[in-house]
Specification:
single chain, Jelly Rolls, 2 domains, 5-stranded antiparallel β-sheet, 4-stranded antiparallel β-sheet, 42% strand, RmlC_Cupin_sf, Cupin_2, Cupin domain-containing protein
Length: 145
């Protein structure tokens, strides 16, 4: 095979393909990173009802100023919960009613009744109700009031 053909027809296009893939990858990462921090800053169409709390400082050593709490959170159609982090506030959220969309670390995740959603220290997310009926979540979390 002619060495000039390799240089002009295979290596150069392969090099440009590699550069294009690297540039597209960098753009994709930048878009995902940007989308993680661009959720709503305030809740809309959301109500919360406290179901109970336990002061963990008297229950578990080393848990001073922490509570275990359970709530019912209702998101009306078209409503959303603001972007928030679960650093220092792990939670388990049971989907009671509706079909909410969770935007977790920039990725949309649809949920349905019966789903248990676990969020730990590396999770930043928000919830949206894109449906026509109310979404009801039952979060149980460790919280520092």
């Amino acid at each position: 095979m002619n060495p000039d053909l390799l240089t002009s027809r295979s290596i150069v296009p392969a090099r440009w393909t590699a550069i294009a893939v690297a540039v597209l990858g960098a753009i994709t990462l930048a878009v995902v990173a940007h989308s993680q921090g661009t959720g709503p800053s305030e809740a809309q169409g959301v109500s919360t009802k406290s179901l109970g709390t336990i002061d963990l400082s008297s229950e578990i050593e080393g848990m001073s100023a922490r509570q275990l709490r359970a709530r019912l959170v209702t998101i009306e159609p078209g409503g959303h919960i603001a972007l928030h982090s679960h650093k220092d506030r792990p939670t388990m959220e049971y989907v009671v009613q509706g079909q909410p969309v969770e935007i977790r670390n920039g990725i949309e995740i649809p949920h349905q009744p019966g789903d248990m959603v676990i969020a730990t220290r590396d999770v930043s997310h928000w919830w949206e109700n894109r449906g026509t009926t109310s979404v009801v979540l039952l979060p149980v979390d460790i919280f520092k009031p």
